[in-house]
Amino acid sequence: MKKVIVSGANGFVGSHTVKYLLDQGVEVVALCHAGHCDHLPQAANLTVVPFDLHDVKQSLADISVSDYDVFYHFAWDGSAGTKRADTKLQLANAQWTVETLIEAKRLGCKKFVGAGSIMEHETMIAAYTNGNRPGLGYIYGAGKTAAHMLCMSKANELGIDLVWGEITNAYGVGELSPRMVNTTLRKCLKGKKPQFTAGTQNYDFIYIDDVARAFYLLGQKGKAFHEYVIGSGQAKPLKEFLLEMKEAVAPDLDFIFGDVPFTGINLPLETFATEQTFLDTGFKAQVSFGQGTQKTYAWLASLEEE
């Protein structure tokens, strides 16, 4: 793998993946919002191009057609916060993903690697379980599911290899979103007792450095029209992860379980299986949850000091 294009290059997953690609000597064309490339390093093999997800074709009009190995698509408007529940936006994200796929083929990319989510599986179960009342978070999951399904058919028509990486729960240094790991660690920093559900639902987490390496390997070795779970390979009930976090960063702080109702879907452990990812790409996570939360906690603490 010598030359790639990366959309959403300044985002949490995108920027870490770009850095890893650069370290491997890959030439990267990084697409990010004009004036928002502060998470990207200076590198001779990096070219930054302004990109507007709302106008994909025009944004990519000036990029020269070339022999690109992979187009990594991380750009997604509303991956955290209240925008996850915006139906119009999440549907638009699916359409923008298809438009990006079409442009990737036009630019000469051999492979299109999409950033999906384990929530795709959760969303399908939530939608097709009679009597279930899915929460607003599944709107984001529906957008990812739609993007995946639409791209499968369109990629087949266009003749471009599609590889879909399904991230379980990425976390780590550089993330500022109000997702669970971040929110819990911030409470620990302030000495506040975090409250959770009973924590019996199955979960998995993966540190951002491992996520970046996984996407590199998907681009290099992932098989066409395959989906790959990007996780630690150690899925288990959420409570076990949280107790591992407590031991790592706040052993004297009480973690309270059972005070928050759980209204989601409990996925079976086999949904998180990473055996196929390992068999096809050789990827195996290297950072344990305890190690990852320690790194993230130290980074958040440094931000507080600043």
TrEMBL record:
UniProt-listed Gene3D superfamilies: NAD(P)-binding Rossmann-like Domain, UDP-galactose 4-epimerase, domain 1
Pfam families: Epimerase (PF01370)
Location of the NAD-dependent epimerase/dehydratase domain: 4-231
InterPro entries: Epimerase_deHydtase, NAD(P)-bd_dom_sf
Source lineage: Bacteria, Bacillati, Bacillota, Bacilli, Lactobacillales
UniProt-recorded name of the protein: Nucleoside-diphosphate-sugar epimerase
Family label: Belongs to the NAD(P)-dependent epimerase/dehydratase family.
